User: Which sequence fits this backbone?
């Protein structure tokens, strides 16, 4: 009895002396789905960081004769029934009547799978030259046999392309959100802090932007990106276009927080104590709404990712040779292709998982950031 | 109420003006002007146009004048209904768009009706039977609806429609009705083709609205007046529908302001995937071939129609919400 009481007392003391960051973390931890989602999002960014290592076949290596190879299963046990992961090498066979070349795994030619084996050369983080890949075929070239998710029309490995697309699509979200955030904090902050005419104008601009259908607008702007631009320039142009229209929600959140905080006693106290404008904003206001901003960001990220995927899917966003989820989904656009190679639709899976995870994470963060929630 | 009405009307006009500016910018964005394009197509056809002739054309079309002047002139043409000719299709823009605009409107408005028709009962059910199996099922479906971009949903449904039912879900008309003039048979055909695109288009919006309705109604159900009504022995159905549902309906109705732009946006993409005869595929094609007069007209019309739709819904809201009607709000 008394033990339980001292226990709860200890908890109370712990809460009383905890910093705001600790309180948020404790509340966030209770939100199981959000914690799992955070792990999933983290995992995706790890994949993005080590994309080249995880890819097993050169993603740009085309081989017209190897188009539409179905996904190759990994055989975990060898012929004697021991644990011995291997894939079967592909054997091309020509149909005597239609002359269509089709590839089938040949059980007579097993190839051992090894972790951290050698594959195509690349530069880790763009710096360190290496050829170590997470998964590789121990002997023989991986491009002969390792197609975990099949190949596309040009014979490129879907799995490796998917992994590299993850990097593009996830970073475009991050870059886009940073830009929107800069715009949102600047304009939302001005709107909330100064009020009056500035507030009126910015609020009307936001209202106008929100009442225009965004996708036709994006399409119009994105179509003006010259075809001769390099993939990097197109990447930044698309990011800017997306964030030019996507900042309104963040600005709304920032303005709301500024308006609420302006009336708080501790801000008045700081003003009376003679603190400068900048000091009040960055020392007193920003720390108290930082968590809200983080939550808003994690809800804005999936919207950015969907925007990029949609534009690229329509052929107006990133263009090949750049690889993103939208570019990959473009290959799966028509029914004939889907009937022939349904595995191309597998790209939809990471899109859905990441967007779901970001949504749950954002919900969890928002709940955790709200002290009265 | 009059002040509210004027404020809304003023904002709508400013928005429409902003849309024309943005459209004009999009029109001007691609490198080169109309004369460049004309010279290029003429030289592709074997004829040659000298630089002096091109300059004369620029003079004649007023392309040397300052941008703001060109904008005013362009606006004058637009207002009188003259949208110019499409390069790509070789006929007036208005003819290319034709029926497609109304089919787009039909699809968008229909989807909003479906969104509300689904979201309202599901939201009420989820709130009244909170944490029941049905509530969890709808919550799960809602999250999927939020997470799957609608073009992806269209793609997946198209694939499984073909695979499992051997059905093609694309298009809005069957092959024999596609080019036929309007008749009752064609309307009937259209009615049969509309539900699938409408459902796909409304899923994301429905998921959002269910969450809003559920949260609003849950807040209302915890109010003391509900307990009072129960304590006085009102039948449960009356307790729920008479007051809390009506109170929860207001924030719900106000969501149309961004539901409409959202749905119009979605319809463009879905139409491309499902090859529906709306303005979506034409917009994409004109943008890809840099037929900017056609593309900017479509963007302009979609934007203006959306603003008008939003304005109408605001009037509807005003009619529903006594606080606005009696001028207590703002």
Assistant:
């Amino acid at each position: 009895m008394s033990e339980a009481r001292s226990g709860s007392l200890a908890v109370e003391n712990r809460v009383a002396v905890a910093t705001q960051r600790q309180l948020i973390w404790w509340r966030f931890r209770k939100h199981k789905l959000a914690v799992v989602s955070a792990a999933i999002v983290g995992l995706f960014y790890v994949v993005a960081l080590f994309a080249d290592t995880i890819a097993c076949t050169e993603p740009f290596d085309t081989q017209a004769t190897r188009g539409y190879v179905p996904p190759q299963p990994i055989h975990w046990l060898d012929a004697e029934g021991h644990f011995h992961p291997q894939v079967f090498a592909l054997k091309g066979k020509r149909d005597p009547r239609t002359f269509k070349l089709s590839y089938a795994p040949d059980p007579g030619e097993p190839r051992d799978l090894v972790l951290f084996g050698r594959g195509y050369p690349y530069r880790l983080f763009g710096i360190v030259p290496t050829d170590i890949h997470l998964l590789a075929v121990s002997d023989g070239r991986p491009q002969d046999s390792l197609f975990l998710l099949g190949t596309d029309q040009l014979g490129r490995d879907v799995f490796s392309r998917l992994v590299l697309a993850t990097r593009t699509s996830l970073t475009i979200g991050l870059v886009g959100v940073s830009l929107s955030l800069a715009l949102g904090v600047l304009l939302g902050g001005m709107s909330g802090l100064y009020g009056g005419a500035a507030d009126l104008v910015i609020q009307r601009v936001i209202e106008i932007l929100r009442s225009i259908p965004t996708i036709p607008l994006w399409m119009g702007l994105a179509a003006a990106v010259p075809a001769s631009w390099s993939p990097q320039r197109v990447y930044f142009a698309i990011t800017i276009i997306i964030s030019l229209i996507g900042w309104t929600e963040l600005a709304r959140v920032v303005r709301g927080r500024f308006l609420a905080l302006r009336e708080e006693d501790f801000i008045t106290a700081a003003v009376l104590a003679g603190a400068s404008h900048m000091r009040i904003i960055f020392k007193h206001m920003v720390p108290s709404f930082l968590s809200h901003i983080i939550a808003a960001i994690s809800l804005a990220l999936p919207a950015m990712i969907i925007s990029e995927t949609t534009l690229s899917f329509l052929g107006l966003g990133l263009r090949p040779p750049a690889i993103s989820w939208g570019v990959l989904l473009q290959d799966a656009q028509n029914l004939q292709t889907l009937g022939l190679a349904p595995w191309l639709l597998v790209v939809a899976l990471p899109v859905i998982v990441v967007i779901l995870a970001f949504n749950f994470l954002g919900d969890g963060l928002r709940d955790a950031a709200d002290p009265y929630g | 109420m009059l002040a509210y009405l004027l404020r809304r009307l003023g904002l709508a006009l400013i928005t429409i003006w902003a849309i024309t500016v943005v459209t004009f910018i999009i029109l001007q964005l691609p490198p080169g002007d109309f004369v460049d394009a004309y010279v290029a197509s003429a030289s592709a056809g074997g004829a040659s146009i000298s630089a002096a002739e091109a300059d004369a054309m620029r003079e004649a079309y007023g392309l040397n004048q300052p941008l703001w002047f060109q904008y005013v002139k362009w606006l004058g043409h637009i207002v009188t209904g003259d949208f110019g000719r499409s390069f790509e299709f070789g006929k007036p823009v208005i003819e290319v768009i034709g029926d497609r605009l109304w089919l787009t409107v039909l699809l968008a408005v229909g989807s909003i009706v479906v969104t509300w028709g689904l979201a309202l009962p599901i939201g009420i059910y989820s709130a009244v039977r909170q944490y029941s199996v049905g509530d969890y099922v709808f919550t799960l479906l809602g999250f999927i609806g939020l997470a799957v971009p609608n073009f992806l949903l269209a793609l997946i449904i198209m694939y499984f429609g073909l695979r499992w039912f051997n059905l093609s879900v694309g298009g809005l008309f069957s092959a024999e009705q596609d080019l036929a003039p309007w008749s009752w048979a064609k309307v009937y055909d259209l009615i049969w083709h509309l539900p699938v695109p409408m459902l796909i288009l409304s899923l994301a919006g429905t998921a959002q609205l269910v969450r809003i309705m559920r949260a609003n109604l849950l807040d209302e159900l915890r109010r003391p007046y509900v307990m009072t009504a129960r304590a006085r022995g009102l039948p449960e159905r009356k307790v729920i529908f008479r007051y809390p549902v009506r109170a929860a309906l207001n924030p719900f109705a106000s969501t149309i302001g961004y539901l409409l732009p959202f749905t119009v946006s979605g319809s463009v993409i879905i139409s491309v995937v499902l090859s529906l005869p709306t303005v979506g595929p034409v917009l994409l094609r004109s943008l890809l071939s840099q037929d900017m007069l056609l593309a900017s007209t479509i963007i302009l019309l979609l934007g203006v129609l959306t603003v008008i739709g939003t304005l109408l819904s605001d009037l509807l809201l005003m009619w529903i919400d006594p606080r606005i009607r009696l001028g207590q709000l703002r």
Remarks:
- The beta strands of chain A are 75-77, 83-94, 101-124, 128-137.
- The interface with chain B takes residues 204, 207-208, 210-217, 219-221, 223-224, 226, 302, 306, 309-310, 313-316, 329, 332-333, 335, 338-339, 342, 345, 348, 351-352, 355-356, 359-360 of chain A (CB under 8 Å).
- The longest helix of chain A spans residues 158-194.
- The mean pLDDT of chain A is 78.
